[in-house]
Fold this protein.
Amino acid sequence: GDSVTQMEGPVTLSEEAFLTINCTYTATGYPSLFWYVQYPGEGLQLLLKATKADDKGSNKGFEATYRKETTSFHLEKGSVQVSDSAVYFCALSEAGGTSYGKLTFGQGTILTVHP
Amino acid sequence: DTAVSQTPKYLVTQMGNDKSIKCEQNLGHDTMYWYKQDSKKFLKIMFSYNNKELIINETVPNRFSPKSPDKAHLNLHINSLELGDSAVYFCASSQATPVGGETQYFGPGTRLLVL
């Protein structure tokens, strides 16, 4: 079945540091890939997504590129802020069949950014 | 104007009780989902409905029964609550199609604590 593996957390950085959160996936078909973010006490919100190989998703300074050859979708940001402190989830959804957009999530990575 | 709303936000109850969580979306989406987030932040899909029809039913105890009176509402009823049911339950919606890649919009979550 489908699965998503994220780098172990938690991740602690100083403000303006470079961020990478690794994400790899296993899927039977051609999935769409997502990064969702969960701020403390809130629900999840979409950060960015990519629906086909070599697509790059970007939002709020975050980027991730859909790499089919390495089955990866690593999240990067050049300069993090304290307000980026949150839990980050990599996820995939398969097309077709009975998936109907079902999201399969990675285990989440807790990011804490210090001033 | 909340896109996906859940009630209640917090639910504390005793083992053996029956409880319901309600979800409503005003986005006009056809598909709604329930996810469970455990204490380690891991998220897993439970159910999905498309136009009031059940389309995804993961391996969930039959004490959990979703009900969709119309496509804007998806409620979750839990019978005979157990300690292991303590978690955060998220409702989500999307305009899902067999092609895939659509964004899911999440509610704020219902924090269930079973004592």
